[in-house]
Amino acid sequence: xxxxxxxxxxxxxxxxxxxxxxxxxxxxxxxxxxxxxxxxxxxxxxxxxxxxxxxxxxxxxxxxxxxxxxxxxxxxxxxxxxxxxxxxxxxxxxxxxxxxxxxxxxxxxxxxxxxxxxxxxxxxxxxxxxxxxxxxxxxxxxxxxxxxxxxxxxxxxxxxxxxxxxxxxxxxxxxxxxxxxxxxxxxxxxxxxxxxxxxxxxxxxxxxxxxxxxxxxxxxxxxxxxxxxxxxxxxxxxxxxxxxxxxxxxxxxxxxxxxxxxxxxxxxxxxxxxxxxxxxxxxxxxxxxxxxxxxxxxxxxxxxxxxxxxxxxxxxxxxxxxxxxxxxxxxxxxxxxxxxxxxxxxxxxxxxxxxxxxxxxxxxxxxxxxxxxxxxxxxxxxxxxxxxxxxxxxxxxxxxxxxxxxxxxxxxxxxxxxx
Length: 419
Prior knowledge:
Blueprint: E1 4-10, H1 18-30, E2 36-42, H2 46-50, E3 54-56, H3 62-67, H4 90-102, E4 105-112, H5 114-124, H6 126-130, E5 135-140, H7 156-177, E6 184-189, H8 196-200, E7 213-216, H9 224-238, E8 241-246, H10 274-286, E9 290-294, H11 296-301, H12 308-326, E10 332-341, E11 344-352, H13 377-383, E12 395-396, E13 399-400
Parallel strand pairs: 1-2, 1-4, 4-5, 6-8, 6-9, 7-8
Antiparallel strand pairs: 2-3, 10-11, 12-13
């Protein structure tokens, strides 16, 4: 029987550990050469498959692939591109089959979030609908931590650590200036519908280091008067306050405070800029001097402060994806299952993609304090294990050393394809 090749691609917003999952996929595949031939990586995600832009990862040394473990962002390029249904766009699926056949691809590993799970599910159905044997495994990744079934998502733990550390450090800074200068610091973090990243800011304050922090969650309708009362109370008690605001905060009408009226390639509202909106309210209603910042790409690119737990889990889901494929699985995702909080223990189990695709996991209400501006002890117990440990990359001349792969392209065998 002919050994089939594999296709791996990265999708959506990249993270500080998505390449760690790539490392897990490629290294595990290389250890199983009798079953998997070459791993071809899609240049810019699924677009690489459609346009036959395939990277031959066999052209990279074992050391280079190993270095992916420490390198942030997407080594092969990512994309925001969602396949329509087979009925809506049969042309794209026929193209995928043509590319898979031309390069003897029988395994499909798609590394991404909820929309990627949907794409992966659709491709897994090619065997039935179009008669082409393909095993599709979704490799979970999203800083938003909003995939169902899995306890948490690779990429989130490191963002959570970055936000918690930054909130603590910035709070120390504003505390030192509050008497005669800035009294309010506001940091905007990612999170369109789920407030997991914002919640991580609450970890900055604990019993040893108590800090005045207010968190604005997408799950809690924003009330300007209640928010300003809370800030006023914190300033009167501590002399200053820090605010962690999720980009997805909405008003009573359900409108994003940061909605610019634009949409991205997935049709989602293009958000950004809620921090200055909140800052202007603080100035107008309370008269306090403020500073604000948007964590933006910094929070998801910060490999230098990645959580060791996150790195280990990112590698584990990549490794498990290949192992599941070798076991004959299709349309599944390696999910992280928590066994205990203290000591923190977890295992990898399979989840069916029809239960993952297009489902968002929100913050449970009992993870948010009664007043809506903080996290509960239950939330803290959930979050703390995910930011544990350090996994520093190698450094040279004071800077982290990250790998840039050669990304040697495979010779094309088909006619060009426009998307």
